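Build the 3D complex.
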Amino acid sequence: MKTKMNFLLLLFLFSAISFSKIFSEGELKKAENFKLKDYNGKEYQLNDFKNSKVIVVMFIATQCPVSNAYNSRMAQLYSDYKDKSVTFLGINSNKQESSEEVKNHAKENKLDFIILKDPNNIIADKFGASVTPEIFVLNKNFEVLYHGRIDDSRRENDVKTKDLRNALDEIISGKKVSVTDTKAFGCSIKRVS
Amino acid sequence: MKKSFWLIVFLFLLCSFVEANRQDKITVETIDKTKLAKIIKERKGKILFLNLWATWCVPCREEFPSIVKLAGEYKDSVEFVGISVDYPDEVDSKIIPFLKSINADFVSYVNGFGSDEKLINALDKKWNGALPATFIFDMHGNKQFFLNGKQSYEEFKKEITKILSNTM
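Done.
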């Protein structure tokens, strides 16, 4: 009888673990440290920003009209939050967009935050990023506090919900992020095949 | 001799007129939740090939010719519907010119859900919103395939054939 109970308990535990595994797959909960070079060849790693309260990882592009529609909003976000212990890291994982192109694009659009080139989309794969722009907000332990879009409209005049700003404001003021996941709509990241 | 010349000219003009009329027929209405649900439900013996795209999406534009070709080949058994996630005020300036340029004369709509997220969730909450995306429903309106990212003519054909062979 006891053996049977133990067997059933084990079976239950095994099922529970398998079940939770299925449902936790796909969504990144915590990022790992990574190393990438910016468009000038300078190497950075996520650990360099451990002193920031918040790290905003933004998968962006130079040729995607959706990502480009957000250039001025990204520049404004950086300007508004850079002195509030928030680090902005742009990552370009598109295979057809060179470091030189990323550099020129950043200059033209006044994107003054660090932009890293992810040559083989390894980091995009690790994060599970699919589109540009797509945002991951991390705390200093690299736990994902927010994932999704910058706001709810590609057209700045039609924006009703500023999701990224809301999340950042909540984190800075020590609150729990109320909306942790939104859908990031944009251009698919062009991965190496 | 003279008669046949004028006959050829007449036929040429007639063909041009018919072709121009066919091209002008491309219309793009807005689609909302009710209309989408109705399209999925009302199958009338055909399976539904639903493609989500945008004029700004390069891989969407690249895969479109394959869809146009398949729409011609399977017009008796598959209903092809395109939904563009451009804005409704871009129908005349962007959507219709693109559809005309590749002779896409199947039914096309533009997102009228009010937001991208509402459209995404109406189709599949698990879809991350990456374009292009294709949903294939069987003739009972049940979702059978979700293809995310650019597909080839062969990949689309394989999925269509699978559903058609299961329902024969």
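The mean pLDDT of chain B is 89.
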